[in-house]
Amino acid sequence: MPGRSSLVARLFWTSLAGGAAAFVYGGPALAATGACLALIGLHRLDRPRRIRRLVRATIRAHAATLALRRRQECFVDAYGNRIDDGWVREREYFAERTVLPALDARGYGEEGDALWDTILTTIERIAAAHPLPDIDEAPEDGIAYERFCTERLREAGWNARPTRASGDQGADIVAEHGGIRLVVQCKRYGKPVGNAAVQEVAAALRYWSGDRAAVVSNAGFTPAARKLAAATNIELLHHDDLRDLVPARAVGPGTAPKKAPRGKGRAEARSVLAER
Where is the segment annotated Disordered (predicted)? Predict the structure, then answer.
C-alpha cells in the first residue's frame, strides 16, 4: 500500500541517517534518531483520527445543503413506504465527488475504499442532525404555495408577481431585479418533481423573454429532471433558497440564446402582468 510504503521509507531513511550521525557524534545523535523514529510512529498511529476529522469537517461544511437534500429526496409513497432512493444516490454522489477528492488532496486517497461505509454513515448522521426550518411553514395548497414563493422572492429584493392562472405558459411567477428577469414554476409536491416541470419552465423562459428560469419545490427532483435541468440550464431550487437568490444572468452550455430586440415578446409579457 502507498501509505505503508511511505512509512517504511521514512523509517528506513531516518534510521540510515541517524545511524551515520551516531557513528560520528555518538550517543546524542542516537537518542535524537530514536526520538525521530518515535515521532514518525506516533504520527502514523494518529493517521486514522486525522482522516476521520477531515471527513467530518468536509461533510459539516456542506451540512445545510445535505440536510435540505435529505428532506427533499425522502418521501412516503401511497402505500406508506418511506422512499429514500434519491437520497441514497445524493449521498453517494456527494461522497464520491466531494469527500473522496478531499481525502486525496491530503494524501489519504488510498483510504477511501476502506472508509466508504463510514463516510456514508457520517453523511447521514450529520445531515439528519442539522436543523432545518419547519417543513409545515410552506402552505400545501398550490395557489397559496405560489404566493408563499412570491413573498420569499420579494424578501430577497425581487419585484415578483404571480402570473394569471390561465395563459401562464408554464410560469407561475415572473420576477425582476437588477435588469434580470426570472421565470419560476412552483411545485408543492409530496414526492420528487419530474422532468415535465423542467420542460414547461424551459418553454416559459422563451415565452416570457426571461434571463433565468427555475423550478421551485418543497420536494426533491428526479434524476431525469436533474439531467434535463443541467442540459437546459434550468435552476432547481427549494423554496428556502429564494430568500438568498441574487440576480445574475444564466451562463453555461444550456443557456437560452439571447434575442436581439425583445420588443414584442417583452411587451406582451408586461401586458399580462399588468392585467394581474
Answer: 248-276
Rounded to the nearest 5°, which phi and psi values hold at 184? -130, 135
Residues 258, 250, 211, 196, CA torsion sign: positive
Amino acid at 172: D
* Inter-CA distances, 9 with 16, 119, 215, Å: 10, 29, 55
- The pLDDT of residue 222 is 85
- Residues of the chain whose pLDDT is less than 50? 1, 3, 251-276
Q: What is the largest CA-CA distance in the chain?
A: 95
The CATH class of the 142-275 domain is alpha beta
| C-alpha triplet 56, 75, 221: angle, nearest 5° | 80
pLDDT score at 244: 82
CB 158 within 8 A of CB 177: yes
| CA separation for the pair 64, 130 (Å, rounded) | 7
| Amino acid at residue number 245 | L
Q: What are phi and psi of 261, to 5 degrees?
A: -90, 135
How much of the chain is helix, strand and coil, in % rounded to 5?
Answer: 60, 10, 30
DSSP secondary-structure letter at 186? E
Q: Tell me the pTM.
A: 0.57
Residue 43 is predicted with a pLDDT of: 57
pLDDT at 271: 40
